Amino acid sequence: MKTRVWTILLLAGALQAGAEKEAETDNLFKALATPSSPGCAVGVMRGGKTFYAKGYGMGDLEQGVGLSPKSVFYMGSVSKQFMAFSILTMEKQGKLSLDDSVRKHIPELPAYFAPVTLRHLLHHTGGVRDYLTLGMLAGYSQDHVWTERAALRMIARQRALNFEPGAEHLYSNSGYVLLALTAQRIAGERLNEWGTKHLFGPLGMASSRWQHNHADLVPNRAHGYARSGWGAWQVSDAMVDTVGGGGMYSSVEDMLRWAENLESGKLGGDLLARMSEPGRLRNGNAIPNGYGMGLVKGTYRGQPSVSHGGALAGYRTYLLHLPEKRFTVVCLCSFASANPGRFAEQAADVWLQGELGPAAKVEPPKPPPPSNLSPPDASLKSAIAGEWWSDELQAVYRFREDKGQFLVEIGDNTRAAVMAAGDGSLRVSMMPITFEVKRDGGTVSALLIQAGRVRGIALQRR
Fold first, then answer.
1. Collapsed DSSP state (helix, strand, coil) of residue 217
2. CA nearest 99: which of 72, 80, 121, 79?
């Protein structure tokens, strides 16, 4: 009788603790739980069991459809772990080697791609210029529709890599698009067909898919949203037809099935272990930020972690896995200013209360350093004013003065102020673009673009 009473008391205590954690998690998302805002869906799994799955806010503001664990989101770069898993599966099947040159499978790439291997692409150590950044530099609008053919043409039109393969780690969506093209050519079918048979189907991820055409219907789709300049919500859906680096749609329910596989390893457990190990540079050092193959190895509050986030258009996504705790949080959001990574960490704090190390000390924000930017002087403006052309971007850059500002117009969509920096370069306001000014004697002969994931594109006077 006493044993039965203690069992009932323990069960009651567990139920109360679970209800308290659910209430605390609800509180994290309470600002989103309105019919007038997009929001997030979140799922919590431990030991292969789903403890919590819920949606907050709206997936379709026009039709009044709320978010739920069944809502299907564009996954952004969370897709990369599924691309990596697919490539490793094909390697295990004997259909490729990670040390294959990418030109073995995509021979239309330029000859300088010969040293770039599939392994380099998986680890972002190939030096391949990022096609999305190239599109920004070409003046494409944010809703430009990228097809696989267009992305491949843009990548192949480049005259150099950012760096020698293996020398550095620099994130590049281009590498994962090339991996998708490689996989499709080997399989003889689209990635979605292959994935349904070998990945999504076996794991019961019935809502997940690779989207090869942005216009195709997606049942239970959550639309992405972003604020307009005047504060109203506007639809901001993913308009790309490329897959591999992104292009996957999934739900919290399906991603928890993937999380269960991360724990059990029932499908490709040996491959998952390889994916979470940081890659190495050619000097033998591990990639500093812990990037493996579509997954990032790190720590959270003293616990080893494996994670990856995604962001495109109005979608923001995150998966946080703490393997030693057998714990996973998935957070999928439908608005551009969301921070799903922080939401996932806060959910982990709630559900693992008392089991984590001390939280990292939050340093107060430091004041920004004094700006060394100033308007270009008259001689520099005179030397640069006019039209400049990039063969690699197939774009015109127009520099001119207007109402006291020195401006650059990039393609047909971008217009921004240009300022001079103390090191002699030029910076574009509100954009991550620097122009290095190259001179032949006293004459400006070229402008060299440096833009984060793209380095060293030359502009010539037109």
1. coil
2. 121
Which contacts qualify for 56-59: CB closer than 8 Å, 24 or more apart?
A: 56/29, 56/30, 56/32, 57/29, 57/32, 57/33, 57/334, 58/334, 59/220, 59/221, 59/222, 59/223, 59/334
Strand partners, 410: 397, 414
List the CATH code of the domain at 378-461: 2.40.128.50
Q: Which of 226, 200, 306, 299 is nearest to 263 (CA)?
A: 306
Q: How far apart are the first and last CA of the chain?
A: 92
Measured between alpha carbons, how far is 206 from 219 in angstroms, rounded to an integer? 11
Statement: residue 327 has pLDDT above 70:
yes
CB 343 within 8 A of CB 318: yes
Q: For the structural domain made of 72-351, what CATH number should be given?
A: 3.40.710.10
Q: Which two tokens stand for residue 233?
A: 């919500």
Burial 106-138 (b: 16+ CB within 10 A, else e): beebeeebeebbbbbbbbbbbbbbbbbbbbbbb
Mean pLDDT along residues 221-232: 94
The predicted structure's pLDDT at residue 456: 97
- What is the spatial distance between Cα 257 and Cα 254, in angstroms, rounded to a whole number? 5
Q: Find, among 201, 328, 252, 275, the residue nearest to 75 by Cα.
A: 252
pLDDT score at 450: 97
370 token code pair: 């004094």
Q: Tell me, rounded to whole angstroms, the distance of Cα 261 from its chain centroid.
A: 22
Q: Please, which residues bridge with residue 455 across strands?
A: 450
| CB-based contacts of 156, cutoff 8 Å, min separation 6 | 108, 109, 110
Cα distance between residue 163 and residue 281, in whole Å: 12
